[in-house]
């Protein structure tokens, strides 16, 4: 028999910023230690970080209008595009909702997802190439950064 984890103890674990090791598809909850759930699916390898600390969850639950607030259960700070691919596949397999977030300038909760995973694109901020008619950049590049980098062109 599985040990019962109350919502309160789960929230305390989230607030403590415990490291996520997997997802329990039966109880539909994140797992922070192998002892917490004997049968769970490990999260995929990530170059970045899957965060559950209060600061990350609170930031992801806010948008530019400060009107709507949907708190996720995790925030992915990808270290590579492959992290996004892996986490989207993982979320799809386990029927978890997922949302992408840039600078948080959207309104009405568009970059938010209640009890799901928010992908914070800010860590993907590389300008790969700038040509005379196009630029190849990551999703987290600011327009002002691209403009400064393109000025010599």
Tell me what you see in this structure.
This protein is an alpha/beta fold. The chain is 24% helix and 20% strand. The protein has four helices and nine strands. The strands form three sheets. The protein has a four-stranded mixed β-sheet, with helices on both faces. A three-stranded antiparallel β-sheet has the order 2-1-3, with no helix packed on it. A two-stranded antiparallel sheet has the order 8-9. A hairpin with a 4-residue loop joins β8 and β9. It is globular.
Structural class: alpha/beta
Helix percent reads: 10-25%
**Overall morphology:** globular
Rg over CA atoms, rounded to whole Å, is 18 Å
> Kindly state the mean pLDDT as a whole number?
78
Low-pLDDT ranges: 1-16
State which percent range the strand residues make up.
Answer: 15-25%
Annotation keywords:
9 strands; alpha/beta; 4-stranded mixed sheet; 153 residues; globular
Question: What secondary-structure arrangement, pairings included, does this model have?
Answer:
Elements (H helix, E strand, L loop, with lengths): L6 H9 L6 E3 L4 E3 L9 E2 L6 E3 L2 H7 L13 E4 L3 H13 L4 E4 L15 E4 L6 E4 L4 E3 L5 H8 L3
Parallel strand pairs: 5-7, 6-7
Antiparallel strand pairs: 1-2, 1-3, 4-5, 8-9
